[in-house]
Amino acid sequence: GIQVEQSPPDLILQEGANSTLRCNFSDSVNNLQWFHQNPWGQLINLFYIPSGTKQNGRLSATTVATERYSLLYISSSQTTDSGVYFCAVNSGGGADGLTFGKGTHLIIQP
Amino acid sequence: GAGVSQSPRYKVAKRGQDVALRCDPISGHVSLFWYQQALGQGPEFLTYFQNEAQLDKSGLPSDRFFAERPEGSVSTLKIQRTQQEDSAVYLCASSLAFGGYSNQPQHFGDGTRLSIL
């Protein structure tokens, strides 16, 4: 099946810093989603982005499908950005189960 | 505008007991998915429903795991004769996607944290 690799696995930053999280995948994808899992375990949809670029406030994401990677940018980090960021893909139709990466554990220190 | 609702939020059971976990998808969502998330790992796919039909159960770890969605809305994941390795967070997701209408995201509930003693 499709493989998903995320980097870095861990990231510690000061409040106000910017960061870039990367997701590499091993095959062409139909769907790609970025999620934030907060310390309470809730999995929050950030972006649905199988290709192209999207922005939502301080967050933006870019997927280059032909080169099989996606990037999540976080600007002006806040302590509430802490948690685990997951990239998830599927290579079949949108009704297929998602394959998740192992995540990037982000800690924002005040 | 309710999201995906799961209950109970937490469940503690003794090894050998049966448990049932409930998922209420977003109204109108045809597709429903179950995932298992072990501590420190990403979620892993268990099974998929399109309406009431279970079209993929390739991720179910053993025949002790059983899922149903009899009326095409609410779904129940049942685990029989629970074992300690079943301890995990069980996540449910729903989506408008089905068949050829595929370009839709999956929306997740808050999960059920299952602990087997």
What is the multimeric organization of the chains shown? heterodimer
Radius of gyration of chain A: 13 Å
Helix content of chain A: under 10%
Helix content of chain B: under 10%
* Number of E-state strands of chain B: 11
Intertermini distance of chain A: 40 Å
What's the helix-strand series of chain B? EEEEEEEEEEE
Mean pLDDT over the full residue set of chain B: 93
Secondary-structure content class of chain A:
mainly beta
Show the largest interface.
Answer: A-B, 23 and 34 residues
- Strand segment tally of chain A: 11
Q: What share of residues are in beta strands of chain A?
A: over 45%
**From the helix content, strand content and strand pairing of chain B, which structural class follows?**
mainly beta
Short synopsis of the structure:
The complex is a heterodimer of chains A (110) and B (117). With 110 residues, chain A is mainly β. Chain A has no helices and eleven strands.
Give an overview of the whole structure.
The complex is a heterodimer of chains A (110) and B (117). By secondary structure, chain A is mainly β. Chain A is 0% helix and 56% strand. Chain A has no helices and eleven strands. In chain B, the strands form two sheets. In chain B, strands 2, 4, 5, 6, 9, 10 and 11 form a seven-stranded mixed beta sheet that branches. In chain B, strands 1-3-8-7 form a four-stranded antiparallel beta sheet, with no helix packed on it. Chain B starts with a strand and ends with a strand. Classes of the chains: A mainly beta (110), B mainly beta (117).
